[in-house]
Amino acid sequence: MVGQSPLDPSESRTAVLLEPFVHQVGGHMSMMKYDEHTICKPLVSQELSFYESLPLAMRQFTPQYKGIVSVHLKKDSLGNLTLIASPSLQTESCGRLDNAIGDSSVTIWHKCKWAASTGTGSEHTLVKWSHTQLTKTFKDSCPGKMLLRTDLQYRTDSLLEDANRNQPERNSYNPWGLHCHRQHLNRMSSKHNENKLHQFLLLENVVSKYNYPCILDLKMGTRQHGDDASEEKKARHIKKCEQSTSASLGVRICGMQVYQADTGHFLCKDKYYGRKLSPEGFRQTLHQFLCNGNHLRTDLLEPIILRLKALLSVIRKQSSYRFYSSSLLIIYDGQEHKENTAPLDNHLHFQKTNCTTSHGTNHSRVDVRMIDFAHTTFKGSKCNHTTYDGPDHGYIFGLENLIKILQNISEGK
Asked: Which terminal CB of the chain, N or C, has fewer other CB atoms within 10 Å?
């Protein structure tokens, strides 16, 4: 059940109460769902600079930038935390909040009960997000939302166990976004008072058109630290790259969710899983991403490869750009075209079989998008520390290997 709205009556006339973005599979910043086609994330000046000067050729491979919104934190007497976004309060830089919240405010609401204790035994308990669409049946217009339920109560320790020990498949939702969201609210509430304004980027929700969004989040390139990283952070990121497929392949898995037709749930993996993979483990996980529990989605391979080749052609022409620590999303719909599916049983699940190959004739709808540009640098950037010549060869190395592995899977190798 939804508790009493934290908004004043004047605010709630136009306010929109939103839940965390349940399809976030990677990253560390919390993503919020602003509306059906828009998400928002904390603004980083370097990322804003990238979107404001985005080359035309890259626009088809990035989320559409929709603007900036000012946000402040609000806590009621019960300890419920609220993020209130106020479009009318957009400023050039984050400032202080006066009594300016009006009818144009849009609320991003997260009901989170915080225990008074701050000792080792403290608990930050995530309580119910109640959205009726999350509990509807498969007949719902957006069935994937039902499978990624967030209207259950979870304690922090169980959430982190899912994140660190890679056991989220036991639940019917991807826990990573909730993990990021809890940590972000924790940081905001401990560091800032309620009058502090924060700025958020508004970006296209690139998975909104999919019923069962299957998402692979890939950390691209052989280097992950930005030019502004401290020596300690630089060393930490170099070590992560050396101990993962970032060094050997120029790409590593940062997160994944893939719809399993045989169980009716999403299989989820996180960044900790991805860091431990060998090149062969990476290939096997890529194969797993394309397998729905019944068969390999061979209908996806050609359109994904073609899309990646098109991106590779664009990246090769972007002189001075370095996409340090950025990610690449590969997205497809877990709901297959009828000609590619096996017969359903009476329980709306696929008959359980081994993962064999299915050859579909129609190209499935797929997408490839670059995201997370907080450490991207390029000539002319306001936040530029170093100017580089030529394209990002580390990123290109990762794309070339990714394409090669997918081609091998397509050829049955």
From this structure: N
**Cβ neighbours for 264, distance < 8 A, ≥ 6 positions apart:** 138, 147, 348, 349
Flag whether 152 is in a domain: yes
What gap in Å lies between CA 202 and CA 180, rounded to an integer? 18
The pLDDT of residue 140 = 38
Look up residue 225 and give its two tokens.
Answer: 């630290």
**pLDDT at residue 32, as a whole number:** 82
What stretches of 76-226 adopt beta strand conformation (E)? 81-86, 106-109, 112-114, 124-126, 197-204, 213-220
- Which of 155, 173, 204 is where one domain is finished? 204
Cα 131 to its chain centre, rounded Å, is: 20
pLDDT single digits (tens) 359-391: 443 445 899 999 999 999 999 887 777 889 999
Q: What are the CA-CA distances from residue 314 to residues 262, 317, 404 (Å)?
A: 38, 5, 18
77 burial via Cβ count (<10 Å: 0-12, 13-18, 19+): exposed
- In the block, tokens 């990035």 appear at 62
DSSP 40-69: EEE--HHHHHHHHT--GGGGGGSPPEEEEE
Average pLDDT, the chain: 73
β-sheet bridge partners, residue 259: 266
On whether both 260 and 395 belong to a single domain, the answer is yes
Residues 186/124, Cβ–Cβ less than 8 Å: yes
Residues 6+ apart with CB under 8 A from 364: 297, 299, 300, 303, 332, 333, 336, 337, 340
Mean pLDDT calculated for residue range 51-63: 97
Q: Is residue 249 part of a domain?
A: yes
3-class secondary-structure state, position 322 = strand
Task: Please report how many Cα atoms fall inside a 13 Å half-sphere around the Cα of residue 35, on the Cβ side.
Answer: 7
**What's the structural domain count of the chain?**
2
Which of 3-12, 87-96, 198-207 is most confident? 198-207
**Helix locations, 105-175, DSSP H:** 143-147, 156-165
Task: Please compute the mean of the pLDDT values over residues 391-396 and round it to a whole number.
Answer: 98
165 occurs within a structural domain: yes
Domain extent at residue 341: 213-410
- Percentage of the chain surpassing pLDDT 70? 59
Place of tokens 């996180």: 270
Cite the DSSP H helix spans in 65-219. Answer: 143-147, 156-165, 176-191
